[in-house]
């Protein structure tokens, strides 16, 4: 019996079988973008509206030709926005380009060096977008208080960073993530900082509802193979979390029973 089929991720009322969300940037070409996306088994693909053509330029290659909205849920994001106003405008443009599409990923960055979220601007943008009818998934710092504020505003998912965007440093503060997961009533997805499969598995073992990544796959030597590894890691981590790990013990405990043993 396959438990994976019953264990669905629900975001803004829609169910997804895959808990791995992927980005669409940094690949060598659109063909590789599609191949890696398929290998990842991802159903939600995030797209940087300011950097990627999804119809803004009718004369350039269109990402939607290789990851069409008929096959995938497109998640427009505000990468490259440093103010709430820019982010809101960018997502309103995305909604027009995608025929009234409501599910979006908000990120308001604090500076170009760290790409750390600017939380005061993020909160302002989140309020405005929720009021405007968007379903907002939101990139945020791994601060339990900020995460709760975003949930209270009405965001449909909170997405704390594991470490800096594109750093591949993995989960630097599992304790903060655990605090966020414990209190949240909406999905918590690790966004940013995953470097390899074990990072994704750890995020899922902690109880995250999903993982979003781009660079870890796109910058791998073999992106398609890494995409497959990430899919398996997310599934394994989720299964381990649902199975409930054995308690940690400080002393050895033999796997085989000792009673009745032949001397």
UniProtKB/TrEMBL annotation:
Highest taxon above the source species? Bacteria
The UniProt entry, under CDD domains, shows: ThiG
> Gene Ontology terms, cellular component aspect?
cytoplasm
InterPro entries for the chain: Aldolase_TIM, Thiazole_synthase_ThiG, ThiG
Instruction: Return one Gene Ontology term, BP aspect.
Output: thiamine diphosphate biosynthetic process
Ordered alphabetically, the record's keywords are: Cytoplasm, Schiff base, Thiamine biosynthesis, Transferase
Q: Where is the active site?
A: 105
Q: Which residues form the Thiazole synthase ThiG domain?
A: 10-257
Instruction: Provide the catalytic activity annotation.
Output: [ThiS sulfur-carrier protein]-C-terminal-Gly-aminoethanethioate + 2-iminoacetate + 1-deoxy-D-xylulose 5-phosphate = [ThiS sulfur-carrier protein]-C-terminal Gly-Gly + 2-[(2R,5Z)-2-carboxy-4-methylthiazol-5(2H)-ylidene]ethyl phosphate + 2 H2O + H(+)
List of residues binding 1-deoxy-D-xylulose 5-phosphate: 166, 192-193, 214-215
Keyword Transferase carried by entry = yes
Enzyme Commission no: 2.8.1.10
Q: Which GO terms describe its molecular function?
A: thiazole synthase activity
Q: Where in the cell is it found?
A: Cytoplasm
Q: In which pathway does it act?
A: Cofactor biosynthesis; thiamine diphosphate biosynthesis
Q: What does this protein do?
A: Catalyzes the rearrangement of 1-deoxy-D-xylulose 5-phosphate (DXP) to produce the thiazole phosphate moiety of thiamine. Sulfur is provided by the thiocarboxylate moiety of the carrier protein ThiS. In vitro, sulfur can be provided by H(2)S.
The protein's assembly and partners: Homotetramer. Forms heterodimers with either ThiH or ThiS.
HAMAP family the record matches: ThiG
Task: State the similarity comment.
Answer: Belongs to the ThiG family.
What's the protein name?
Answer: Thiazole synthase
Q: What is the lineage of its organism?
A: Bacteria, Pseudomonadati, Pseudomonadota, Betaproteobacteria, Burkholderiales
